[in-house]
Amino acid sequence: MADIAAAIKPDDCHFARTRLLCLENTWNGHPMSQDYLALATALVREKGLATHLDGARLFNAAVASAAPGEPAMASARRIVSHFDSVSVCFSKGLGAPVGSALCGSKELIARAHRIRKMAGGGMRQVGLLAATAAHALDHHIDRLADDHALAQRLAAGLAGMEGLRVKSAQTNIVFVDVDHGRGSDLLAHLKQHGVLATGLIGLRFVTHLDVDAAGIDHAIACIRRFFSEPATQQASSQRTGPY
Fold first, then answer.
1. Nearest 5°: phi and psi at 43?
2. Taking the CB of the first residue and of the last residue of the chain, which one, N or C, has fewer CB atoms within 10 A?
3. DSSP 3-state assignment of 213?
4. Which domain holds residue 180?
5. All residues at 6 or more sequence positions from 156 whose CB lies less than 8 Å from its CB, including other chains
6. Does 235 have pLDDT greater than 60?
7. Residues 117, 160: one domain?
8. Residue where one domain finishes, among candidates 107, 140, 173
């Protein structure tokens, strides 16, 4: 809370006004606690700030934070109840081909719609895209728990492997630190074998509905092979198939 309070500029004509607190949930794959969200938003409201949630992975946070027996949608409503506006993404964990939505009061959405028009935004004939988003909301939220389990499977398979260090996997993202600056070489090795990750020194692996247990085991085997083979042999290795 001290960091948030310190970031709010004083009421001084020499500074731009601080108008908004924006939080992201999940943050680097970690769901934020309800207590933290409540305290942070209450703090800035006392200062007259608005609040926005970057909910690109909101439903991952909702599934991970749900109380026993609580539906994921109810958990999501508890999370967003602290905020004036929320953006949600349909194309990440939910698996739609494209799409995000801004949620808020009628007044806020009307203003956002006007600003979008002023900036030249707009699409036509988007029924098919909207249908994929609706399907994702109806069918792909509860299954996010499967992605979280696969991330745990990956983290467990890499734990203790010489040459890298695995950070905790609480939802569907696994971060891995690679020793001796070999991250870019590992990325290239994985790509040759049909495994995609991002990053340089620290690598990021993301599970989603197109990844299954066989793909996770394949990734673990490829990483183990990278650290066991000589560099010359790695350079000559061939792609074994997509996962």
1. -60, -50
2. N
3. helix
4. 143-228
5. none
6. no
7. no
8. 140
Q: Evaluate the CA torsion angle 197, 200, 203, 206 in order and state its sign.
A: negative
pLDDT per residue as tens digits for the range 93-118: 999 999 999 999 999 999 999 999 99
| Cross-strand pairs, 198 | 204
Alpha-helical segments (H) within the chain = 2-7, 34-46, 58-65, 72-80, 106-118, 127-139, 144-158, 183-192, 213-228, 231-235
CB distance 169 to 176 below 8 Å: no
Distance between CA atoms of 163 and 194, rounded to whole angstroms? 21
Burial class (CB in 10 A: 0-12, 13-18, 19+), 185: middle
111 and 68 share one domain: yes
- pLDDT of residue 241 exceeding 80, the answer is no
C-beta separation of 149 from 5 below 8 A: no
**Residue 156 confidence (pLDDT):** 97
How far apart are the C-alpha atoms of 96 and 91, rounded to whole Å? 4
Provide the pairing of β-strand 85-89 with 173-178.
unpaired
CB 27 within 8 A of CB 168: no
Q: Please tell me whether residues 162 and 46 are part of one structural domain.
A: no
Residues 72 and 6 in one domain: yes
The pLDDT of residue 122 is 81
216 pLDDT band, cuts 50/70/90, is: very high
Which residues on neighbouring strands pair with residue 236, listed in sequence order?
none
Residue 92, C-beta contacts closer than 8 angstroms, at least 6 positions apart:
56, 57, 208
